[in-house]
Input
Amino acid sequence: MQIGFNAPTSGPLIEPDSLASIIVEGEALGFDYVTVSDHIMVPRNLDSKYPYTDTGEFPAGTQAAWLDQLATTAWIAALTKKMRFVLSVMVVPHRPAVLTAKLLSTIDHLSKGRLTCGIGVGWCREEFEAIGAAPFDDRGHVTDEWMAACTELWTAEEPKFAGKYVKFDDVQFTPKPTQKPIPIWVGGESGPALRRTVKYAHGWYPVGTNPQFPMNTLGRFKKGLERFRGFAEKAGRDPAEIALALRVLAAPGQKPRGSIDGEAEMFTGGDADWVADIQTLESLGVSCVDVRLFGRGGDTLDATLGNMRRFKDGVLDKLA
Output
């Protein structure tokens, strides 16, 4: 089982010294990977609904400062030696396709092959419009076209592409990524996300607390896996060849152990509950779980480092 933690890209911990301390400590403690989130410019007034809260409210708010995801990932690469980094997730239509391919290839090359490209289509119409991104209503097609263009540039000696939005021919694109291929994980729990996963991804990367597609009890998680496997089989793909990862938007001790419909709510309670949940997921084929350890007890560096060390002692060491 690979265990990751979420790097703060918004809020008071994004100052260089604080963020560097968190990243360096994470690698020293033995975390396998760090996740990096993606927002560029959040408008002050939002009608769009965030998918992972019951109310649709965006937890970070609209006033927070945000680091750019890909620049931050490159900076993290320079601070680390072994730890991988997972884009969690990159909103694919936010950046032009060829620029995206170049940035990701460069990060993978300079990090000696430590990038995992988590991808999503995005949820915030206002942000798409504010940054001049590709059309929000066509974002599913745009995401697939962008990733097809990236794959062509990363793999072909003489890349060429003719899509609805992206066209190139007679070009040189080097250096290629170190990894062949860069792993692509699709975030999301909807039907389109599952179809995208089984079409071309190397991993499925859901969040268990999406109110529309909850996977936060063992029974619900098993149903989610059955649904995923059904999509894979319908597409003629062996689900066993697709990695299973889970993003957890919490930390041990944040919420007392609860129950839903008579079953324990996963990733609530203390360290022992979390160890048991992770071991159960591993028995179901899940290979990666990442957690959010900043913010608990206050958005301070000392509190976050304390959370990370307690997680190592109470969870990581018990899973070893």
Notes: The mean pLDDT is 96. The chain has one domain: 2-319. The first strand starts at residue 2 and ends at 6. Residues 2-319 form a domain with the TIM Barrel fold (CATH 3.20.20.30).
